[in-house]
Amino acid sequence: MARSSTLNVAVIGVGRMGADHVRRIREVVSGARVSAVVDADADRAEAVAARAGGCAAYTDPAAALAAADVDAVLVASPGPAHEAALLAALAHDLPVLCEKPLTPDPASALRVLDAERRLGRRRVQVGFMRRYDAEYVRLEQLLRTGRLGRPLLLHQRHRNVTSPPGWTSDLLISDSLAHEVDATRWLLGQEITAVTVLRPAPSGDAPAGLQDPQFVVLETDGGAIADVEVFVNCGFGYQVRAQAVCERGTAHVGDGHAMVTQADGRWGGTIAQDYLERFEDAYDREVQTWVDSVRHGTPTGPSVWDGLAAAAVCAAGVRSLTEGGRVEVELPERPSLYG
Ligand code: ISE
Q1: pLDDT of residue 18
Q2: Got the DSSP string for 289-322?
Q3: Burial (0-12, 13-18, 19+ Cβ within 10 Å), 93
Q4: Which is nearest to 73 in space by CA: 132, 2, 127, 113?
Q5: Rg, the chain, Cα only
Q6: Is residue 109 domain-shared with residue 160, that is, in the same domain?
Q7: Residue whose CA is at the smallest distance from ligand 1 atom 9
Q8: Ligand 1 atom at shortest distance from the alpha carbon of 240
Q9: What is the DSSP letter of 255?
Q10: How far is the CA of 47 from the centre of ligand 1 (A)?
Q11: What residues flank ligand 1, with Cβ below 6 Å?
Q12: In the chain, which residues have pLDDT < 70?
């Protein structure tokens, strides 16, 4: 693709997240346009394509990727559909931004990694958006300077208002905790070696049978310990926080009080209700950075290796949840392609 030309993006999966990315590419991001949308629901694909204008609707990802005016792919379909979409995109040597999880399990993530390695260059970026959130970026930069000494502990919180219908206890790990798994690896610059999932008494407000909340302990190869509360029916807001405890100080992000009011004998603010609101700026920055990077070469954000590492940690987490106890993470050697 010529450097100056507009990037024609096919968006695969136009449910809530994918439709928001279509809007973002149309209204916020520069240097790209949506040339195709794909969804198993033909009516939904048609409706999103009509809103986007100048865009074709497909139900079959393979047909969309074979179209002449597709330079890049954004995958926002449900996790189990990612492997097929990623392998098809890599077969066409197209750059991809794939929503998390890369794939739902390590075996399929490894197949994607092998396909990218065969191409010999990075084509895929994984949508771990915390890496583009202004507060998280500041925390990562601070930790990297070493000014507070070594990070010893990382306390994280991941709360959703309610879980989607049919949600399972495993999904609190593979779909929600996956973000904190990546944030832990990125913030600390360390790999996670073992996972222990603890099961507090479930909330009476969670659907029957759902283990919610969960408390997860992650051990790293640098000797740090990270804990994560995952609570997806907290009822009051979407809250994602991290506090690093270092040798000479602590740093805390995620309170994000944009405005505090004081009136009628009270003070307070509002809490975001979902991830599209809480991470709106981060998503904008993520997609713009991806577009800029692929227009000039290869994606620079979270890689297939990061997606595989998250899948391996989550698989260990699901085992700990179901069998109990501490489970070690099984991760192959990091290939040189991923530095
Ligand atoms: C969802 O898929 C997300 O990615 C959200 O960021 C997360 O908070 C939620 O728990 C997941 O199910």
Answers
A1: 98
A2: HHHHHHHHSS--SS-HHHHHHHHHHHHHHHHHHH
A3: exposed
A4: 127
A5: 20
A6: no
A7: 176
A8: 8
A9: -
A10: 25
A11: 160, 175-176, 179, 232, 275
A12: 1-4, 257
Residue 73: phi and psi, rounded to 5, are -130, 135
273/285 same-domain check: no
Residue nearest to atom 2 of ligand 1 (CA): 175
How far is ligand 1, taken at its centre, from the CA of residue 59, in Å? 25
- Residue 251's beta-bridge partner residues? 244
Is 69 a domain residue? yes
- Helix or strand run (H / E) with residue 58: strand 56-58
Find residue 267's DSSP bridge partners: 262
And the tokens for 114? 């092998």
Q: Are 69 and 92 in contact (CB under 8 A)?
A: no
Are 143 and 241 found together in one domain?
yes
**CA–CA separation, 169 and 31 (whole Å):** 40
Instruction: Tell how far the Cα of 48 is from the centroid of ligand 1, in angstroms.
Output: 22
2 falls within a domain: no
Q: What is the pLDDT of residue 4?
A: 53
Q: Whose CA is nearest to atom 7 of ligand 1?
A: 176
pLDDT of residue 2: 45
CATH assignment of the domain containing 119: 3.40.50.720
**Interval 26-44: pLDDT, tens:** 999 999 999 999 999 999 9
CA of 175 to the centre of ligand 1 (A): 6
- Cα–Cα distance, 145 to 319 (Å, whole number): 36
CA distance 64 to 43: 16
Its pTM stands at 0.96
Spatial neighbors of 330 by CB under 8 A, at least 6 apart, are 106, 312, 315, 316
CA of 172 to the centre of ligand 1 (A): 9
Token duo for residue 187: 């913030």
Boundaries of domain holding 251: 138-278+310-338
